[in-house]
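hey can u check if this looks right to u? its 208 residues, i copy pasted from the old doc so theres a chance i mangled smth
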Amino acid sequence: MPYLHGAGPRTRRLVAFLKRRARAGGDARSSLDCRSFPSLFRRRAIVFTDTDDFTLLVARHGVLHFLMLFDRAVRSLEPIVRQRGGRLLKAEGDSLLLSYPDPASACRGVGAIQAALRQLNAGRPRNERLAFSYGIGFGDVLEIENDVFGLEVNLASKLGEDRASRNEALLTPAAAAELPPALKRRLVRYDVTSFDGRAIPIQRLRLG
């Protein structure tokens, strides 16, 4: 199966561009990239979720038990993501990759997901409850029908999977900078991480 196998127009446009880029010489590729940037990239807020204690849950209760819980959560959460202006691009392993038009929508979307998970978990035994951690990035990304690529995607993934704890939402500097004042007041300085030799200050969103 091809790596980029979607049938949508954005995927077809990207595949056609990559074939042209492969045929172009090294010096011509930079010019080709610049000319194609407006048609390929768009500014988006990216949310990467990670399931708390995924490995432990599978070890204790089996992968089928986890898949039952995760499938139930995804089916409940997808319409909530759409209601907040977002898109569920894909579910992969124990994580969700979401796209929103801006960081404010992403933060409100995370709040809505948190509220939905609390409702979904209510009254269930401990081994049937799910909790997420979240990483939020913002910038120019290459978004196709069912996937997205770019530096802020990578950073959101790193924050959501490696740095955020249960029920925490961590923001990249680019995402934090674009929030309106009301949401900025809910930010707390969290930590500094390094990426490609650069120090990146992380902020945490206080979730209700």
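The chain has eight helices and eight strands.
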